[in-house]
């Protein structure tokens, strides 16, 4: 019988870093995390205390207050899409408005010991209206729920499209209509959907709950195709929205809703009861008798491991040691493709495959006396992670990708070795994998290396960034050299002897570098939905552990082999390492 023999990995931070290094790195990271923390608070505040008071004056709870009641006591809410639309303003002149979080909260929430996907309109932002990118944010959450078969809970308090910006959220293949398509696909795949309407539920907001298995309404809630104001204008009828589509109508006459409750807490209690009736989590079953244990080394120390200068290396194995249970890891193929680290660990008691970039100098397979920089994809490493990814997919083991990649190797040697073909094999593997994959952009996520290592285009269930993530085709300085290449010599020095032209080229190159560096800001990437969430280094295990558990929660929809018959054992045995 094959066994999974996990070995200790990592060591005390004092053994591989000096106190000065640790202090300097931590100081740099804390400054970045402080900035992100301030932005998180700004988004969570919605449109501010005045709008919170308006919600309370109507006898309703705010969205975050509802989430606190919904979640299991002592559990954490894990938001995704926090920074969608961050920094954008809509409208002109004095009418300019921001829409924090695109006016909707999407989060993993544990309810009755099961992870759920919660999609909740922020009723402090334009009464929960849909802005540009609001539909896409909702659809992303629905897609994740479909991939993992997570129950979806809609907390609806939505005044419909934010009409001044309707042209950017109404049409198009990912516009508001796609929300209803995702409702349908979730239903067709047997994914439970429960909706609760707490107030406004107009037009598209009115359609969203209907396909759900359960629809609840509070006494203040109404669902209408068109609100009272529109009806008054179109049909000259003076009537209230509550009279048109309140609980009296939809629970007792139209049958568009199932149950009514007196207020927000009562309806949330009903939702929790419904979730308790669903099949329980399969996670304990798939632990195969293993227990959850914390890493031997504090996860918060990861913040101290990353240098303030992104060009400096760090020990990736020490990062892994602070993410996995008991700091135990079975490294597979350690003697091949040394620029890549592949192996199996338990995270939250459950098996996961880990694929990570090694940042240190590595040996050259053809020239033993030469060293090559890590963080780059070479032939053996590409073949190694491609085969390991395939094997994990065959075994049903979720994969965690820890990216810090500068791209593929380039040059004459790389072309002769057929890196294009090996890279294509890796891309094919990750494009056709069905096992849940989580991609973490630890630091650099550059060029085709980012693509090949399970980027967003290859449908990981979640892509996370950190405060030091640099997502771009290439670094700003490199791109500036490329843009001005015709004006530079072979050593990238300016060819001109004219002082004015030299100054113009210098300032132009600096402007390009500054713009690209600004574009690489992780919050900016998250605002464009290029990544799902920006998390602190100390939060990485929390999110990864939740994602691994969610991968095993639902049973019967994907193959999960028991560890005795893993193809990983065959791969390990045949390589004789």
Describe the structure in your own words.
The protein is α/β, with parallel strands linked by helices. The chain folds into 3 domains: 45-276, 2-enoyl-CoA Hydratase, Chain A, domain 1; 295-303 and 312-469 and 521-574, 2-enoyl-CoA Hydratase, Chain A, domain 1 (Alpha-Beta Complex); 474-519. It is built from 21 helices and 20 strands. The strands form 4 sheets. Strands 1, 9, 10, 11, 15, 17, 18, 19 and 20 form a 9-stranded mixed β-sheet that branches. The protein has a 7-stranded mixed β-sheet with strand order 2-3-4-5-6-7-8, with helices on both faces. Helix 4 runs parallel beside helix 5 (177-188) and helix 13 (379-395) runs parallel beside helix 15. The model is unreliable at 230-236 (pLDDT under 50).
Offer a few descriptive terms.
7-stranded mixed β-sheet, 2-enoyl-CoA Hydratase, Chain A, domain 1, globular, single chain, alpha/beta, 9-stranded mixed β-sheet, 577 residues, 17% strand, 3 domains
Can you give me a brief rundown of this structure?
The chain is α/β, with parallel strands linked by helices and 577 residues long. Strand 17, helix 16 and strand 18 (462-465) form a beta-alpha-beta unit.
Low-pLDDT residue spans:
230-236
Largest sheet: 9 strands, mixed
Strand tally is: 20
Might you state the CATH topology name of the largest domain? 2-enoyl-CoA Hydratase, Chain A, domain 1
Radius of gyration: 26 Å
CATH architectural category of the largest domain: Alpha-Beta Complex
CATH class of the largest domain: Alpha Beta
Beta-strand percentage?
15-25%
Q: Which structural class do you get from the secondary structure elements?
A: alpha/beta
């Amino acid at each position: 019988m094959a066994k999974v023999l996990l070995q200790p990995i990592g060591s005390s931070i004092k053994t591989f870093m000096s106190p000065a290094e640790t202090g300097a790195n931590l100081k740099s990271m804390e400054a970045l995390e402080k900035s992100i923390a301030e932005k998180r608070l700004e988004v969570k505040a919605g449109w501010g205390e005045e709008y919170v008071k308006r919600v309370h004056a109507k006898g309703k709870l705010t969205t975050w207050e509802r989430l606190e009641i919904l979640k299991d006591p002592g559990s954490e809410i894990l938001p995704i899409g926090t920074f969608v639309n961050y920094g954008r303003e809509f409208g002109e002149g004095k009418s300019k408005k921001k829409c924090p979080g695109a006016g909707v909260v999407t989060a993993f929430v544990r309810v009755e010991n099961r992870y759920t996907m919660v999609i909740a309109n922020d009723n402090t932002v334009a009464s929960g209206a849909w802005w540009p990118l609001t539909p896409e944010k909702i659809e992303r959450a629905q897609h994740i729920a479909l991939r993992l078969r997570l129950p979806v809970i809609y907390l609806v308090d939505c005044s419909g499209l934010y009409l001044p910006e309707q042209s950017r959220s109404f049409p198009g293949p990912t516009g508001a209509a796609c929300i209803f398509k995702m409702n349908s696909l979730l239903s067709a795949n047997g994914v439970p959907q429960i909706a609760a309407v707490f107030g406004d539920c107009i037009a598209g907001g009115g359609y969203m709950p209907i396909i759900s298995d359960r629809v609840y309404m509070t006494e203040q809630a109404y669902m209408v195709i068109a609100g009272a104001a529109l009806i008054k204008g179109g049909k000259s009828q003076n009537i209230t929205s509550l009279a048109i589509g309140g609980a009296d109508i939809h629970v007792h006459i139209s049958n568009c809703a199932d149950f009514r409750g007196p207020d927000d807490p009562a309806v949330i209690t009903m939702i929790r009861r419904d979730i308790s009736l669903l099949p329980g989590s399969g996670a304990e079953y798939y632990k195969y008798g293993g227990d959850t244990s914390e890493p031997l080394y504090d996860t918060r120390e990861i913040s101290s491991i990353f240098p303030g200068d992104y060009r400096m290396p760090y020990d990736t194995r020490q990062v892994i040691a602070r993410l996995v249970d008991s700091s135990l890891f079975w490294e597979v193929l350690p003697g091949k493709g040394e620029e890549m680290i592949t192996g199996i660990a338990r995270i939250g008691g459950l098996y996961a495959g880990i694929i990570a970039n090694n940042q240190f100098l590595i040996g050259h397979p053809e020239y033993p006396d030469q060293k090559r920089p890590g963080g780059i994809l070479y032939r053996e490493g590409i073949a190694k992670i491609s085969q390991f990814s395939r094997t994990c997919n065959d075994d049903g083991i979720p994969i965690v990708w820890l990216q810090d990649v500068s791209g593929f190797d380039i040059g004459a040697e790389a072309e002769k070795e057929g890196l294009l073909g090996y890279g294509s094999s890796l891309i094919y593997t990750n494009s056709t994998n069905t096992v849940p994959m989580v991609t973490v952009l630890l630091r650099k996520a550059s060029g085709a290396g980012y693509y090949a290592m399970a980027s967003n285009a290859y449908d990981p269930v979640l892509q996370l960034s950190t405060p030091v993530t640099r997502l771009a085709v290439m670094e700003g300085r490199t791109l500036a050299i490329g843009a001005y290449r015709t004006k530079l010599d072979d050593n990238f020095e300016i060819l001109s002897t004219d002082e004015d032209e030299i100054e113009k080229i210098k300032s132009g190159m600096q402007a390009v570098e500054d713009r690209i560096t600004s574009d690489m800001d992780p919050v900016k990437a998250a605002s464009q939905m290029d990544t799902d969430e920006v998390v602190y280094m100390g939060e990485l295990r929390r999110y990864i552990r939740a994602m691994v558990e969610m991968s095993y929660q639902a049973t019967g929809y994907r193959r999960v082999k028991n560890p005795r018959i893993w193809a990983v054992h065959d791969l390990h045995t045949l390589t004789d390492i």
